[in-house]
Design a protein that fits this description.
Jelly Rolls, alpha+beta
């Protein structure tokens, strides 16, 4: 498994607020610093909105790129030990290495080995993606076929691949609050999910079971948060069906996390209500309408559980926010 590093580093970069003439200069700076080796494509407008994280033993890059050619840095090419795992969440990319070119589309992934020389990924049109950089020596004992030469395509229907993409999205904004211990755990989960996506050895399947559960739970939590306001009657059966597991399995995932499905949904609804009560944009809305908007059908129940969670009534929270000028 990846060795722990002392710190976790990350950065976010986007071109949206830069005038077009300044974009090339900013991208050149990222390239020269070795943070994002990209070149604008002729006749295309470069677009970048990415988050990069440096976890113990794994580099994580995710976001959207367009109008660019992305390459391995000279340092990465020189190491000869690094594997690069690129996942297209949406959009189409072209991968090139040693005079060979392949196209990969929505949900598909490509594995590159730095030992096979330089490579590049071309994205003329917008592509949402996840990219991982990991040591081949660390991965080799657990995954099959890493000694095969050339690029390798992983099909979109691979369940571990979908979980890997969802897990990276879940951790993308966690870097600042992530402890060294947590970063090691997350790096180990990513390591295992890459192994499962590529084809694990028999021993690695059992070892990765915990990472698979963690990634599935994160995917389910993200799905609940995304659908909570649209569905006031969100049920465990509906969530289980969407993730192709049983309701009992969903319950067990939450139990292992020291939580229940019902409590998680309730706390998510309360958090939505609390944010709206603090937000001046909702100051004209009554407390009852906010409660109904986030999925509560019983106002007295809402008031009771809200006070239990926050130690104050909804009116108290709203008044305090108005006094402090809270933006929500």
């Amino acid at each position: 498994m990846p060795e722990a590093e002392a710190t976790v580093r990350s950065f976010r970069f986007a071109t949206d607020d830069l005038p077009e003439p300044q974009r090339d200069l900013a991208l050149r700076g990222l390239r020269e610093r070795g943070l994002l080796p990209v070149e604008p494509l002729p006749g295309r407008v470069a677009h970048v909105d990415i988050t990069k994280q440096f976890l113990p033993g794994i580099g994580v890059l995710c976001g959207t790129l367009a109008g660019l050619r992305q390459e391995a840095s000279p340092q990465q090419q020189a190491s000869g030990d690094e594997l690069f795992f690129a996942v297209n969440l949406s959009g189409r990319s072209a991968a090139l290495q040693r005079q060979r070119e392949i196209s990969f589309k929505d949900g598909e992934a490509v594995l590159f080995s730095g030992a096979n020389g330089g490579f590049s990924v071309v994205r003329p049109t917008p592509v949402r993606f996840v990219g991982l950089r990991i040591s081949q020596k660390q991965l080799a004992p657990f995954a099959r076929g890493l000694d095969d030469s050339g690029m390798r395509v992983i099909p979109a229907n691979a369940a571990p691949l979908r979980l890997l993409a969802s897990y990276v999205a879940a951790i993308a904004n966690m870097a600042e609050s992530m402890s060294t211990e947590m970063s090691g755990v997350i790096a180990a989960h990513l390591h295992d999910l890459v192994v499962l996506s590529l084809g694990p050895t028999r021993d690695a399947v059992a070892a990765a079971a915990g990472s698979l559960r963690a990634a599935r739970l994160q995917a389910i939590k993200r799905d609940i948060a995304a659908r909570l306001l649209e569905d006031p009657d969100l049920t465990v059966a509906a969530i289980a069906a969407r993730h192709q597991v049983t309701p009992r399995y969903v319950h067990k995932l939450f139990e292992r996390d020291g939580m229940t499905f019902t409590r998680f949904v309730l706390e998510q609804r309360l958090d939505h209500a609390c944010r709206r009560l603090r937000n001046p944009q909702f100051s004209a809305r009554s407390i009852s309408s906010i409660a109904y908007d986030v999925g509560f059908g019983d106002l007295s129940y809402f008031n009771r559980v809200f006070r239990r969670r926050y130690g104050a009534t909804p009116s108290d929270i709203r008044q305090l926010a108005q006094l402090n000028g809270s933006p929500g």
